[in-house]
Amino acid sequence: MASTTNAFEMAQAQFDHVAEMLQLDPQVCEMLRWPMREYHFRIPVRMDDGSIRVFQGFRVQHNDARGPNKGGIRFHPAETVDTVRALATWMTWKCAVADIPLGGGKGGVVVDPATLSDSEKERLVRGYIQVIWKNIGPRNDVPAPDVGTTPQMMGWMMDEYSKLSGKYTPGVITGKPVGGGGSLGRTEATGYGVIFTVREALKHLKIDASKCKAAIQGFGNVAQYAAIGFIEKLKGTVVCVSYWDREDRVSYTVSKEDGIDPHFLHSITDQYGSINKDKAREAGYVIEPGDAWISKDVDVLIPAALEGQINGETVHKISPKVKLIAEGANGPTTPEADEVIKSRGIFVVPDFLCNAGGVTVSYFEGVQNDMNFYWTKEEVLEKLDTKMTEAFKSVLDMSLERKAYMRDAAYMVAIAKVVKAMQLRGWV
Ligand code: NAD
Predict the structure, then answer these.
(1) Which of 50, 83, 303, 419 is at a distance of 20 to 30 A from 332, taking alpha carbons?
(2) Strand pairing category for 237-245 and 250-255
């Protein structure tokens, strides 16, 4: 496969590889290699000092054969349309593999949200909806939070859409605050979902989870709950997490060989996932370079920050002790690194299976909004566990049956479902 760190080229290379294995019809490939629709737009925002700043926004709808497009909106200074395209494509596969009746979409704004005041953020998210509201909705495209966006922002977006459309429409956005149409368990969903698949993978590998050590990249929403789940649900040890330091403009790994305490680290973390390293040091943590997490002598690696982190350069730093990589982030592994991981026989739970917990509970949120009846957190997390376990099993069965790498098997399960829906609708 091609050596690339462009996320969309990676998504296309992964798809092409499996399309070839499946000998997919060229027309079907033509449909699935590219998003069905995409919107590029400018959002003018009045800043607190009275000036106007214009932001670049995107919304990409990859494929809605199986149901309304679904996917988060990311606020990141390095956002590009290719990242959004890749993430939208992966959403199509993610919904299919998790067997939820939704398609793939994604949005983005080129901005560092930490540089905006709360009122500027509110005007920006409302501005985003003012531009795109006619092209989204509960029955065609349902956004959600992602890196750099929060439940509060989703609440503002839902409110703006409801005002513009003239009716209260909670189902237009998921990841809303609890009490404002949000679902209990959404905050924990992705990280815990990662852990449900780690549990199943370790069972398959016949490894006792309670004797396992894990190293995690990132300390945002996904990484925090993956750490808590690994320690509290699986009784394992997490030796480090990492984060992007906003002041120093570099990433750091925060380590404690006998086990980090994610609740403590959370208490010294800002809302963008940056840990206060002085307070961490005072509590006995060691601050190491950002890429130290990948070379730790652990059984499980959980990349849960951004795409392209396990690449041609970093993959060789992975310890021979590592038996499992659970991809909490979207697209953390480049195709080049994938080849190395494959040849070393490391078991991989691929991203769109591993982190499907978030979209699964987002789907539950939409269902609860439609019913106007809300489940308890226990009910939500139990239903999530069932869905994630079933999804893992379907991919593992495919991998064993076709003697395929887990990522390829996940693509096979997902592509089959999307192609079937397109055929049923007469598209191909
Ligand atoms: P987040 O913004 O809450 O956290 C991101 C974390 O990564 C922060 O701790 C940040 O400091 C850290 N980080 C950023 N760049 C880094 C770098 N170069 N090195 C080390 N750490 C770095 O984001 P999140 O919601 O936790 O999402 C993380 C990943 O999981 C993304 O790929 C996202 O697309 C994916 N994902 C998120 C969800 C969800 O529900 N939140 C669902 C599916 C997939």
Answers:
(1) 419
(2) antiparallel
